[in-house]
Design brief:
This protein has 261 residues and is mostly helical. It has a domain at 46-158. It contains 8 helices and 2 strands; from the N terminus they run αββααααααα. It has a two-stranded parallel sheet with strand order 1-2. The protein is elongated and about 150 Å long. Its main location: cytoplasm.
């Protein structure tokens, strides 16, 4: 009389199929009881292998029913021959099952080997790619060094070809002062000149900024308009025209004031 609601769907809460209780009459052996070893998830629902097993069990029961009785001595040889044939048949079937299992294991082994080979190929390709990248970087660095050395040697050759005969040249003062890249404006440190050693002489020293007396004199020389600020009161804007109408800008300012309030 009560209803329940669960957060799980039926598939998550489903158990094994229901098997009702049964009673076996005395003297009867139902064929269904021979499948009592099969349970849900272990042989059920039945597949091709289970169907073949059921057919073999039926054949074996029919063979057992057709065996000659043990009370007749003349039928013992026939019974022994039938049992030998069945034993050979069972061994042949067992060998077939072993071969099938071996084939399945061989396929699994092939898949594992193929997967391992693919992974190894990927690792090899990645390793080769990394080596190629390293060689490319080393090649680019070597090319840059060669280009740098080439530019340096070209500059040296150009400097040597300026004075091939080794003649002494007189100093051209006008040329040095017109060229801002000459030793006059930008001397090299390898010639024994270091610009940072006398950098304090480039500092601006002003009497009016560095001394109190200079500041007082500078303040006295400034006009009154600099030290005394004059504020002019703005004239009010006319909101009406000469004819007595209110200007549009004035109406807009009133509306804006109202909206702001």
């Amino acid at each position: 009389t009560l209803g329940t609601q669960t957060d799980y769907r039926d598939g998550e809460a489903q158990t094994d199929p229901y098997s009702p209780e049964y009673v076996v009459p005395s003297g009867s052996v139902p064929e269904l009881l021979t499948l009592a070893t099969l349970t849900w998830g272990r042989g059920l629902p039945a597949g091709l292998a289970e169907v073949e097993m059921i057919e073999r069990a039926r054949e074996k029961r029919a063979w057992e029913a057709n065996l000659p009785a043990m009370d007749n001595a003349s039928q013992i040889a026939k019974r022994r021959k039938m049992m030998d044939d069945m034993e050979r048949k069972e061994w042949a079937f067992r060998e077939q099952e072993i071969e099938k299992l071996q084939e399945v294991r061989l396929e699994v082994l092939k898949k594992l080997l193929r997967r391992r080979e693919e992974n190894q190929n990927e690792l090899d390709a990645k390793r080769l790619d990394d080596q190629w990248q390293n060689h490319q970087k080393a090649k680019e660095e070597k090319i840059k060094k060669i280009q740098h050395d080439c530019a340096l040697m070209l500059r040296k050759l150009i400097a040597k070809r300026k004075n091939v005969m080794g003649k002494l040249e007189r100093r051209d003062i006008i040329k040095e002062y017109t060229d801002f890249a000459s030793q006059t404006y930008a001397p090299l440190s390898r010639t024994g000149y270091f610009p940072d050693n006398h950098s304090e002489r480039y500092v601006v020293k002003n009497f009016y900024l560095n001394t109190f007396a200079g500041l007082c004199e500078l303040e006295a020389s400034l006009p009154d308009s600099v030290t005394h600020v004059k504020i002019k009161v703005p004239k009010p804007k006319y909101t009406t025209t000469k004819t007595g109408f209110i200007r549009r800008s004035a109406r807009l300012e009133v509306e804006l004031a109202q909206v702001h309030q």
